[in-house]
Amino acid sequence: MPEVNSIDGFASSQIVSDSAGGSDIILVGTVTKNISALTQSGGFVFTDSEFVIDEVLGAQTKSADRPAQAAGDEVTITSPGGQLYADGHKISASVSDSPQLRPGRRYLLFLRYIPASQSYSRVGIGGFDISGGLAVPLRTDPDITPAPIPDGRDQFIAAMRAALVAASQGGAR
């Protein structure tokens, strides 16, 4: 597979298409805070990130177990790993292909709803950090490298939106 390192390359890549296809919803927004905790068994750390939605780029049909989401809503995104203090000890865990979302950063995320916790988890490539001048994939993949977004993130979001529409219609970009 050729290396994907441009806005149009991201939007038309099979990896992005697969991530979108496995998602319940694709959101653009900003993380406002992270709260880490131990799993019920105490064997691992997870982090809940509060995420304010700027835009819903794509969503599967609403179901009884999954709420509809709109711009301005806040959702919780659960990720493996994180850092916390318990009984005076620092406990931290990380998962290499699932980096922690950072408060204040803006992301485009591919998400699946988790009914039991009423939260979302990232799927496929997970999404992109679009906070600065690069679209940075959240999951490391040898075929995808950060791409400059010289005309701003609006161009990147528009390219992704167009690719999602084309994919939903069964066409290629």
Describe the structure.
The chain is 17% helix and 42% strand. With 173 residues, it is α+β, with helices and mostly antiparallel strands. The chain has one domain: OB fold (Dihydrolipoamide Acetyltransferase, E2P), CATH 2.40.50. Strands 3-2-1-6-7-8-9 form a 7-stranded antiparallel β-sheet. A two-stranded antiparallel ribbon has the order 4-5.
Set out the fold topology.
Elements: H1 7-12, H2 14-21, E1 25-38, E2 45-59, E3 74-80, E4 82-86, E5 89-93, E6 106-114, E7 119-129, E8 134-137, E9 147-148, H3 153-168
Antiparallel strand pairs: 1-2, 1-6, 2-3, 4-5, 6-7, 7-8, 8-9
At a glance:
The chain is of the alpha+beta class. It is built from 3 helices and 9 strands; from the N terminus they run ααβββββββββα.
The description of the largest β-sheet is: 7 strands, antiparallel
Number of domains: 1
Give the mean pLDDT.
81
Shape: globular
- Continuous helix count: 3
Strand order of the largest sheet: 3-2-1-6-7-8-9
What share of the residues lie within helices?
10-25%
